[in-house]
Amino acid sequence: MDGELHHKTQIETSSVQPPEGLSISLKNATRDDSLYGTRPIYLDVQATTPTDPRVLDKMLQFYTGLYGNPHSSTHAYGWETDKEVEIARGHIADVINADAKEIIFTSGATESNNMAVKGVPRFYSKAKKHIITTQTEHKCVLDSARHMQDEGFDVTYLPVNQEGLISLDDLKNAIRKDTVLVSIMAVNNEIGVIQPLKEIGKICRENKVFFHTDAAQAFGKIPIDVNDMNIDLLSISSHKIYGPKGIGACYVRRRPRVRMIPIITGGGQERGLRSGTLAPPLVAGFGEAARLIKEEMDYDQAWIHKLSNKLKDGLLSIPETQYNGCLSDPAKQYAGCVNVSFAYVEGESLLMALKDIALSSGSACTSASLEPSFGLGRFTTEAEVDYVINAIQLRVEFLRKMSPLWEMVQDGIDLNTIEWSGH
Asked: Which residues, in sequence order, are bridge partners of residue 146?
């Protein structure tokens, strides 16, 4: 999908200039080293991102002067914060080419996923009782799907291939007359593969099935157009795009209208789909983060591609390593997530040996063991990537010296010819 843009940003690395304001270092945040030790290098952007200082500047206004309840419609305190909330809603909608009225604020992508996977099937439960998702979804989607099974729904869990991608034929064959929802993640949080959203959306629209995608790792990082891709519901998290934690959104299509039963009821805020008083500081910070990530997408992705290529080249230069993700088509792989397996080294042992690097540990699609997953972002530096490459090369070499299997391979023994005795 939109492979041209991905290739374009890759080759523009040398010409693109950093936007104004990015010279601020986030490495010297106030903390007590005596309590937590020296801070490791941060390569866990899939888990969360540091708040952009420009986002914090925007938020601070709402902790001092602009403190009105945005739902107070009878005085200026409410009017001024409500206006800022709607500006933020517009910035978020612009990233995915949606209407601002289709953005429903939530506490984050977990709540948005619960809204979609539970709320839509419950509304249409009298006529439709079947949901389709994949085996590699985020835990909140899988748990929500299992919850719906307990309520009497059938759920189909589509498998993925070795590159982590679903088969479109499997999806077509899984759709039934009573299928109400297809929920498929946009970018995988462990290996970074990009599912074919446009093709999935086309299949769903042709079969009159609602299409939900968990875009927590994709929003602002890959091009998404909810209309062109026929996406009906889309989950977003602010803290994945250098915004504050505790705020997210769910895009809910208005035409054709998507109906759902809300999971939080009360005052009827957010089109009646998510009651509760909005937090203007968080909403404004989220909106500013969305504005910045749209405005600076070309620069961010060019920088991340540059670091990703450097990291991949450095790690794959180590003998007997495997890249986990989609190598067959660069347009189906998000560069900011690099997952690599090292043969003859236990993933858990390597993670224990990398205490000076903060990274994610998840199971790659081709492996049951934990593998290091490196997350690269706006504030990652080349020096950090150089350090990580050198550290991993040294520690993989050290761990392999302790492995009898590695020693046998070095001696030219084919491990497939050995008859292993059971215990």
From this structure: none
Burial class of 404 by CB neighbour count within 10 A (0 to 12, 13 to 18, 19+): exposed
* Helix runs in 127-184, H state only: 139-150, 168-174
Packing angle, helices 382-401 and 297-316, rounded to 10: 20
> Within 10 Å of residue 317's Cβ, how many Cβ atoms?
10
- Specify whether domain 3-51+297-416 bears CATH 3.90.1150.10: yes
Distance between CA atoms of 250 and 274, rounded to whole angstroms?
10
**Rounded to whole angstroms, how far apart are CA atoms 205 and 207?**
5
Torsion sign, CA atoms 46, 304, 166, 263: positive
Q: Which of 140, 326, 337, 365 is catalytic?
A: 365
DSSP state of 326: -
Nearest to 234, CA basis, from 104, 397, 383:
104
CATH of 55-295, one of 3.30.1510.10, 3.40.640.10, 3.40.1360.10, 3.30.460.20: 3.40.640.10
Structure token digits, residue 272? 């009646």
The structure tokens 């761990």 sit at 399
* pLDDT tens column, 216-235: 999 999 999 999 999 999 99
User: Is the whole model's pTM more than 0.85, yes or no?
Assistant: yes
Does the pLDDT value for residue 375 go beyond 90? yes
Alpha-carbon distance of 122 to 155, in angstroms, equals: 14
- To the query of whether residue 204 is one of the catalytic residues in this protein, the response is no
Question: Is 207's pLDDT higher than 60?
Answer: yes
